[in-house]
Amino acid sequence: MARFSRHPASAPPVAPERERTGHLLLRGWMVFSLFFAFTAPGWVLGFGIPITAIVGAVIVTTSAVVVGIIRPPFQWRRLPWIAGAFILWAGLSIAWSQWAQTSALTWLLLLATTFQGIAIASVLTWREIVRAIGSALGWVIGLSLVAEILVAWIVGGPLYAGFQTDADAGAPEWISGGIFAGARIDGVIGNPNLLGMIALLAVVVFAIEFAARESRRSMLGVWIGLSVLTLVLAASVTAWIAAAGVALVLATVLLMRTARRPGERTRYYVGYAVIGAAGALAIWIWRVPLFTAVDRTADLLDREAIWSAVLDRAGDHLGVGGGFATPWLPWDPAFRDWIVLGGRQITQAHSVWVDVLFQLGIVGVILLAFTYLAFVWRSWFFAVDRPRWDLRADRPYSALTLLPTLTGAILLVQGLAETAPLMGWGWMLLILLGSKIKQSPHIGEGPAEQRLAIERGELLRAG
Fold it and tell me: What whole-number distance in Å separates Cα of residue 200 and Cα of residue 254?
């Protein structure tokens, strides 16, 4: 009679355990919430603010119900409390705001985005987070390219907000439809600069998945190629500068990982600081020739005009600011027709730091600076240090640990020329990744990983 032992050579093959349907639905819902965050400006242009607000409210409410049902193990002390101090200050500014209604509404948006980031971090593992972000970005890239092709083919020109095709109607442009004419593409987001940054983030995420072998590498190679194509077609100078920053950070992290002796990293830190500072200074000094070379002088002049106007107004309430307002709601009398360029009303200062100084004063700038510093600090050592929780010091690095620090580089560069990192997907990823690092400082460990192991029967202990 044949007998089976526990030895792998004679044990019967066991099929890999399939994920539960409920967990697959959970991951799918979080992918959709990320997709909505990435494409929110396009939802506003296509369907209007009321419908976009309803969809956003449904997403946050549903996520709250899901988290309440799952009750994931959570360590409240490990929340990003420095970011919480910034959020609290933004909320307190409603008391002295010169645009109280806008402050209240946009602060609720900030709270909703913060909650969604924490919710995703609490119910998904590190690997699931990377894959969810990648899936959402894949939908954004794919739909953007398909939309541009369809608009160019069917409409033969730009598609405007509200699905209008008549330029004389006065609606802002949504999808350029100039993909075959050499024009910059807007994608479903409705803005080439925002699309360029998302394309850069997609390149980073897909490349990390490729290195970590998280999915079929052939398909990941295709998505990397499509993301690079989108980055090129969007032709965003800010995205190109951010790409250089990402390359510099990546090179430095990989060099740091080769250090074997105490103090060996010091020279890398010095070199990184010198190159980064010199590069930033060179870009600022030669910004006019640089923007002229890529035919973006108008963008530069527009931004400098916006910064000048905002800084002039910020001087009236330099200490505590005039009140939180991200974005500036266009129907508020305080912002209506304040800055109009090319027939389009401006709803942000096109710089995180200028905008925060204007809205929350010097106190807000300091709190935001500490928020970014805490995130950069934790994400940096999350990437450069080997995973270690005991005496063993030779555990291999994981490519997944690169995501927070490379995302931080993108957000910091984007924040110089856009206010986007303070809202939508920029703020959500800052909270999501910052919270996840504190909750799960090692890949494969943390409350979400523990819950998933319990569900799969791999961890047989209570509490």
Answer: 19
Of residues 209, 241, 251, the one with CA closest to residue 405: 251
SS3 214: coil
Q: pTM here?
A: 0.88
Q: Tens of pLDDT along the chain (463 residues)?
A: 444 444 444 444 444 445 577 778 898 999 999 999 999 999 999 999 999 999 999 999 999 999 888 887 777 777 888 999 999 999 999 999 999 999 999 999 999 999 999 999 989 989 999 999 999 999 999 999 999 999 999 988 889 888 888 776 678 889 988 888 888 999 999 999 999 999 999 999 999 999 988 768 889 999 999 999 999 999 898 899 999 999 989 988 888 888 776 666 777 777 777 877 787 788 778 777 777 776 666 666 688 889 999 999 998 888 899 999 999 998 999 998 888 887 788 889 999 999 999 999 999 999 999 999 999 999 998 988 877 665 566 677 888 999 999 999 999 999 988 998 998 899 999 999 999 998 887 776 666 666 655 555 544 343 3
In 128-267 the beta strands, taken as DSSP E runs, fall at: 159-160, 173-175
Paired with 164 in beta bridges are 160
Q: Helix 49-70 and helix 100-123: axis angle, to 10°?
A: 40
Residues 442, 395 contacting (CB under 8 angstroms) = no
What is the greatest pairwise CA distance in the chain? 91
Residues 365, 369: Cα–Cα separation, whole Å: 6
Distance of CA 295 to the CA centre of its chain: 27
Which residues, other chains included, contact 169 with Cβ-Cβ below 8 Å and sequence gap of 6+? 160
**CA 337 – CA 347 distance, rounded (Å):** 10
